[in-house]
Amino acid sequence: MSKVLIVAEHLDGKLNPSTARAVSAAVALKPEAVDVLVLSHDADAIAAEAAKITGVSRVLTVVRPENAHPLAATLAPQIAKAAAGYSHVFAPSTTFGKDVLPRVAALLGVAQVSDVMSVEGPHTFKRPIYAGNAIITVEAPASQTVVATIRTASWPASGNGDASASIESLTVDVALPAHTRFVELQQGKSDRPDLQSASKVVSGGRGVGSKENFDVIFKLADKIGAAVGASRAAVDAGYVPSDLQVGQTGKIIAPELYVAIGISGAIQHLTGIKDAGTIVAINRDAEAPIFEVADFGLVGDLFKLIPELEQAIG
User: Fold this and answer.
1) How many whole angstroms separate alpha carbon 231 and alpha carbon 108?
2) What value does the mean pLDDT take over residues 182-211?
3) 158 and 26 in one domain?
């Protein structure tokens, strides 16, 4: 029987929703157990959150001062050690997971399976390739530990159960490297919903025209309680910071509603929104590729259409 170890993603004492999505993928294996591993310098609150996720058998905590910041070089040796006895090691396919899990795979001497979007069997998975234009089936060796990142946009978040999983402290006897150290974390602060987990997202592209004009995107997003995203062209032009970028080289998201404003619809951008529920596009170019995937489209000047939309919304 399979036993799955999920590496929890967290920041500032809060569990990232991507962890619950990784649990959904683990449950699809129908394993004997799904354990969540929390590495932190203060794991109590994070572990309590993880213990409430439906499908979780146990929460294992590794508390060390070195785990105060998520450094891949520090976390990977501990995860590899904790993985003993597990058939699978999962982590979300986020910036965190993409940073940490390849190191874990290397330490375990296995090849990583990336961006798992479907579980076909204990060692058989489907994942996207060619910017999402094709889906391939990959099979990991049954004799080795499966190390895989989970494409969070393809999985619903596992809910919170009434019962709480047990929380156990784990000690891993492993020497940690000293060549990597934490300097600082620079991140934008916003009261808006998190882009990667938001149910509604409003994104702007090159067609918005300037950093100052991007205010129309922020105002519409605030009007409907949405997160804000952007195309790579808008980020490259300096309209918004890179942490808002949606697409193949940005964030892969799956909101219930995605509003694309002034975005032409390059394949790299469409890769990031292919799992969105309803896509609404606003663009002055009626031939823009975005209209081929949009459920609703408006052709015209975004600076005239958006105020009309805001007025209609009330």
Assistant:
1) 37
2) 87
3) yes
